[in-house]
Design goal:
Blueprint: H1 2-6, H2 33-45, H3 48-67, H4 80-141, H5 146-165, H6 168-173
Helix pairs in contact: 2-4
Length: 181
């Protein structure tokens, strides 16, 4: 084991060119954590609760800066700081919403591919079943049906009745028909 640790790195694997800090471990992170956060944020921004919170926030902001004594106001009439806050919120919200939409699009694409594969399998199964049904119909075409057997039995019965009613000489001239004919 000591021999393996002294070996140089393998030549068929790329070297990590970044400097490794021995005394400080590299933090591990979840690659999808930020995407999940963006989806949660976008989902929250699309609710009536968000609109109610935002309306309440702006109403409190405006009423504070209009109704309190002038020395306690922090944003005067043109409300430039409020405009800055809303612009900042919009500048962060737009990319987060786009990220959430991109993730949803990727999920939809995977779902469509799975649906397409399932449809192809179902189509192949239907074609197989159609071929099987056609082969069964062809096989049944060669099998005697109930109506065919009844008609043959009726004709044989009629032949027997005619022979029973006829003379003994007719019986020798006309031998009985076989079932195969």
């Amino acid at each position: 084991m000591a021999r393996e640790s002294r070996r140089s790195p393998r030549l068929d694997q790329p070297r990590d060119l970044r400097r490794q800090w021995v005394f400080m471990p590299r933090p591990s992170r979840d690659a999808d954590a930020f995407g999940r956060f963006a989806e949660t944020f976008a989902r929250f921004m699309g609710t009536a609760r968000f609109l109610a919170y935002m309306t309440a926030f702006i109403a409190i902001w405006l009423s504070w800066n209009v109704m309190v004594p002038p020395d306690l106001r922090f944003d005067l009439y043109p409300f430039i700081f409020l405009t800055l806050m809303l612009s900042l919120q919009a500048s962060y919200a737009a990319p987060l919403i786009l990220l959430a939409q991109n993730r949803q699009e990727a999920r939809d694409r995977v779902g469509l591919e799975q649906d397409r594969d399932a449809n192809a399998r179902a189509h192949a199964d239907m074609e197989f079943l159609a071929r099987e049904m056609a082969s069964l119909r062809m096989a049944l075409g060669e099998v005697a049906t109930r109506d065919y057997v009844r008609s043959e039995l009726r004709s044989l019965l009629q032949d027997l009745e005619e022979r029973a009613d006829g003379s003994p000489d007719d019986r020798e001239d006309n031998p009985p028909r076989s079932l195969e004919s």
